Sequence to fold (278 residues):
Amino acid sequence: LTGIRNMATLKDVALRLRSVKNIQKITKSMKMVSAAKFAKAERDLRSARSYGEGAAALYKSIELDTDEKKPNHMMIALCSDRGLCGAVHTSICRVIKSDLADTSDTNTKLILVGDKARAQLQRLHRSNFLLVFTDYGRKPPQFVEAAHIAREILSNDFQFETADLVYNKFRSVISYETIKEPLRSVDVIASNEKILSYDDVDHEVVRSYQEFALANTIFAAMKDGAASEQSARMTAMDNASKNAGEMIDSLTLTYNRTRQAVITRELIEIISGAAALE
Fold:
């Protein structure tokens, strides 16, 4: 029975060792794929950021006041459908959860882009959901996706005064920052004194500009989020490969020790049996 038990243990260690080696091959392959996708995402981000900076210039050039009697607020979370990228999606959801806890007296609605945001927020904050966009993040972000999201937001019946776009802003290969970019509704912009000083600017013109500016802002944020996600996934897969390597070394040592113990015990039994026959 002792020999059978040792052999079973030896077989279990061998199976575990083979499994970890296969996982290491997968993580190394995913790291290489993420590195290639990150290089493309970083190139796309350089040109896309100008869209977001141009759209944000409107909010910086004029002072936009909000009506405190209409405490309707909207938060837009830019995540994706894919995981295995560290705390990229968790950091965005953490910011939203914190804001919802601090502004419990405000009617806050959530617009979620990506299935990961929906999965993390639906248990406690499902009643705050307004729109959910899934099937996003498997391919590089396109402007048509941002335009679709902006159109759905502005055509929705929820009359918000203020809004925050929550996304990950890419800093470097090893770092990103989760930020909130403030947005305003069409009515708030159209009622501003500096906008009203222009004779030919009516509500429809402001609405068209707001839709275009919102699409640009979301598109730039999508590119920032995609670069942050790919860099985080590349780092996560690199760490996973290193951890798998350490586990392989430990399991190899355990396998060799167990195998040596089994062989030694069998030799002792053979020698003892031969001595007994003499």
Q: What stands out?
A: Residues 17 and 250 are 9 Å apart (CA to CA). The chain has a mean pLDDT of 86. The helical segments are 2-61, 88-102, 115-125, 143-154, 186-190, 193-196, 203-277. The chain has seven helices and five strands.
